[in-house]
Write a structure and sequence with these properties.
Number of domains: 2
Shape: globular
Largest sheet: 10 strands, mixed
Distance between the termini: 13 Å
Helix content: 25-40%
Order of helices and strands: HHHEEEHEHHHEEHEEHEEEHHEEHEHEH
Mean pLDDT: 97
CATH architecture of the largest domain: 3-Layer(aba) Sandwich
Structural class: alpha/beta
CATH topology of the largest domain: Aminopeptidase
CATH class of the largest domain: Alpha Beta
Bound molecules: (2S)-amino(hydroxy)ethanoic acid, manganese (II) ion
Strand content: 15-25%
Low-confidence stretches: none
CATH superfamily of the largest domain: Zn peptidases
């Protein structure tokens, strides 16, 4: 057991969550901190000020990923990497993502204050656009870092106001010139991410630490239905090309197709826009998202492959374009890192269990590059992507202690 255990400060970690929650705070106690928004920049600035006080280095890259670095005694070695994301959903909570960044930062501060110098450098990262709500798809920063997606397909993506990722990243760099620009990507020695579970299992099982066995697969699509504006009063139905009606026929068919009596298939349409969105005009365009998840890869493949044919089948008399934005099959983290996490939890006397992550995480892309694992802590009633998301300071600190043990074990 290293001295990390006692030095990790529950109170300081909680206060830091309070400070972060001020950036993009919503009236109902949640956060709306969109990727690369001013709230995201302000959150980075706050962390930068904490990092400077500790003499830690800060870095960014062409995608606006943000790194804080504790130099090791042998800086030539690939660093140990930890972190998560600072961006949130529009009605997000105060823990999703930010906990992994702050837990990692708390470990760095503890190491600095205790004078412990790891052999390997340890870096804490905030991945750009994990959530995928401003720019689709999500996890752009980690996928770009891992080389799974490239800059040419990420930088031109625009948000609903027409601002591109490239322009938004340039603005972050402009506002934070003191953060050194580094080439995109490197191969870490390992990656460990702490996150709230975003599900009810740990709480129901009264366990403090989740040793994450893997992440279920997810495929996302954007469907664009194109019809024609027409007058609501004078246009007979037989002459209409109503994008909304065709889109709703597709949704109905998809709902039936993805119905799963065991409730394992997760099918969500979270975004739905129509144009021109005027009460007396037949809708000319409908754009909607599809997020489909399943723990079995072959099942996910079959479900995802059904999307385009079904949309085309119900498109008439409109046209339809189905774009697959991301496809990621189920993955299993290596037993080596699971055991290190399990051993740390056991040595700290913390109740722990293994569980699959039903939520997606940046760790998915690091898993393709290096030994990768995740540590979960409970959240109240498993609620997340909701402003009432909550966790206890004791559980957050417990997770940070386990994270500290694992990072130290890999870095020393
Ligand atoms: O959607 C997810 O699973 C993640 O929380 N962004
Ligand atoms: Mn998250
Ligand atoms: Mn999330």
């Amino acid at each position: 057991m290293s001295i990390l255990v006692s030095a990790i400060s529950e109170q300081r970690l909680w206060q830091r969550h309070e400070a972060m929650a001020a950036h993009g705070a919503t009236p109902r106690g949640g956060v709306n901190r969109q990727a690369l928004s001013q709230a995201d920049i302000d959150a980075r600035r706050t962390i930068c000020s904490w990092a400077r006080e500790l003499g830690l280095g800060t870095f960014t890259d062409a995608l606006g990923n943000f790194f804080i670095r504790l130099e090791g005694s042998d800086p030539s070695l690939p660093p140990v990497l930890t972190g998560s994301h600072l961006d949130s959903q529009p009605t997000g909570g105060r823990f999703d993502g930010v906990y992994g960044v702050l837990a990692g930062f708390e470990v760095l501060q503890t190491l600095v204050e205790s004078g412990l110098r790891p052999r390997r450098s340890i870096e804490v990262v905030s991945w750009m656009n994990e959530e995928g709500s401003r720019f689709a798809p999500g996890m752009m920063g980690s996928a770009g870092f891992a080389g799974t997606r490239n800059l040419v397909e990420i930088l031109p993506v625009r948000d609903v106001d027409g601002v591109s990722v490239a322009e938004a990243v340039a603005e972050v760099h402009r506002q934070m010139p003191e953060v050194a620009l580094r080439p995109l990507g490197y191969t870490p020695h390992c990656y460990v991410e702490a996150h709230i579970e975003q599900g009810p299992v740990l709480e129901a099982q009264r366990q403090t630490i989740g040793i994450v066995t893997g992440i279920q697969g997810k495929r996302t699509f954007r469907v664009t239905v194109t019809g024609e504006e027409a007058h609501a009063g004078t246009t007979p139905h037989q002459d209409r090309k109503d994008a909304l009606m065709s889109a709703s026929a597709m949704l109905q068919a998809l709902k039936v197709r993805f119905l799963d009596p065991q409730d394992i298939t997760r099918f969500t349409v979270g975004l739905f826009r129509i144009e021109p969105c005027a009460p007396s005009v037949v809708p000319a365009r409908a754009v909607f998202s599809i997020d489909i998840r399943h723990p079995l890869s072959e099942r996910l493949t079959e479900l995802g492959d059904a999307v385009a044919p079904l949309c085309h089948q119900y498109a008439a008399p409109c046209a339809v374009q189905v774009e697959e934005l991301s496809t990621a099959l189920s993955l299993e983290f290596p037993e080596s890192i699971r055991q290190t996490i399990e051993q740390a939890a056991a040595e700290l006397g913390l109740g722990h269990m293994r569980l699959l992550s039903a939520a997606g995480h940046d760790a998915r892309y690091l898993h393709e590059q290096c030994e990768t694992g995740m540590i979960f802590v409970p959240c109240l009633k498993g609620v997340s992507h909701h402003e009432s998301e909550s966790a206890t300071s004791a559980d957050l600190a417990a997770g940070a202690r386990v994270l500290g043990e694992v990072l130290w074990a890999r870095a020393r």
